[in-house]
Each structure stands twice: as structure tokens, then as C-alpha cells.
Amino acid sequence: MQKQPDSPSLAGKVALVTGGSRGLGREMVLAFGRAGAHVIVASRNQESCVDLAREVAESTGRRALAQACHMGRWSDIQTLVDASYEEFGRIDVLVNNAGMAPLYPSLQEVSEDLFDKVVAVNLKGPFRLSALVGLRMVDGGGGSIINISSVAAVKPAPDDLPYAAAKAGLDTLTAGFALAYGPKVRVNSIMAGPFFTDISKSWDRAKFDEIVKAYPLRRGGEPTEIIGAALFLASDMSSFTTGSVLRVDGGMAVAR
Length: 256
Description:
41% of the residues lie in helices and 16% in strands. By secondary structure, it is α/β, with parallel strands linked by helices. It has a single domain, classed as Rossmann fold (3-Layer(aba) Sandwich).
């Protein structure tokens, strides 16, 4: 019988987080560093990546690489992978967190460009990055891939339909990659609910506060509340968990 660790440890591991410079990504980067991992901070803003990488190095003593990457561009993704392996020689944990959910006035007014960008960042990019890193994990010591999905995948609304469809596709990728890269690589989704990150600044808070009364926890989430699920799936504590979708949504998915 495999002995389970008493607490999540990533000592000696290397973790790559896309969309890692702010919001949920930032909290996961910091938590991984505190748990002992070297980290790769990837986002479109190089300066923000550099700032967070410096903070990780100074606060945890772990090595941190800052790498600008647009997840909708496969050439950027290849550059990210090359830079990561050149710096560390391995990736043990990959978190596909980068996403975008732009507003639009109506479904009829969704442009082809907007639709393509949403699908590219939320679905196409994670597919390519998982394919490249996952294969190297299989050839190496294994690893864990975590996709940050959304409750929109199961509760789509007219004002976020392209995003919801892309996140539903991401959950499908979770199952497919778990089959493709098992048994050495575990692949799971965190189905995130409404968190108070930068994106929440555009919410109608009065409307939101009324809506969340129907949720079991009756509130939105603080960014730090993603950490427990992320550490569980990244570490050996989830050694028998793959192909799963873990809801961290305050109960939104079951609300009526």
C-alpha cells in the first residue's frame, strides 16, 4: 500500500503556472513556492512575471523563472516550454490557468475575432501546452497537470457562452489527457466559481450579492481559497486522483 504524505509537499519539484502573475495564478505560484517548488511564472505581461518571480525568490528562497507567453499563440507556447526546460530541465506540475472572458453586447454581436481569441486562450493553448509538457512528463519522472476550468462549463449563461463552451472543452481535455498520459501523469480540473480577482471589478456587485444568496456558501471566493485544491492536485496527496473535476465554487454548480 502506498503511504500517503501528511501534508502537501512540492519539495524539489518544478511548477509552471500560466496566467501566473495575478489573481488565482499568483496565489498558486506563491503557494507552490512556499511548498518547496521552483516556479515558472507565465503571462502576457513580462514585467508582472518578473515582479512575482522576484517576490517568490525573496520570500521562499526558491528559484523562479519569468516568461512572457500569449497562450493563444503556439509559437509562444513552444518558446515557454523551451525556456522552462533550459532553466530547470523538467516540469513536474503544469497549471493551465490563463483565461479570458470578454464582455459582449449580445450573442449576435460576438465577432469572429472575439470568439477565436476566447477559444484560443482557454482551449487551444492548454491543449498545445499539455501535449508538449505531458509527453516530456511521460518520458521523465511523471507529473501532474491541472486545468483551471469554470462552473460556466456546466452552468452556461448567454453573456459568457464562448467562454463557457471553451471551459467545457477544457474539462473534456482533462479526461482525454488523463487517458493519454496515464499512468505516469495525472490530469485533473479545478472547476472554479466566482472569485474576487481583478476580473470581478467589472461585476455589478449589487446584482452579484443578490445572486449568491442562492449558493450554499452564499458568497464569492477569495483568491487564496484556490490554494488547498491546487496543492492537493499538484502533490502526492492526490496520487490516486486523475481525470477528475474538482468543484471549488461555493456550491454554485448545485444552486437552483
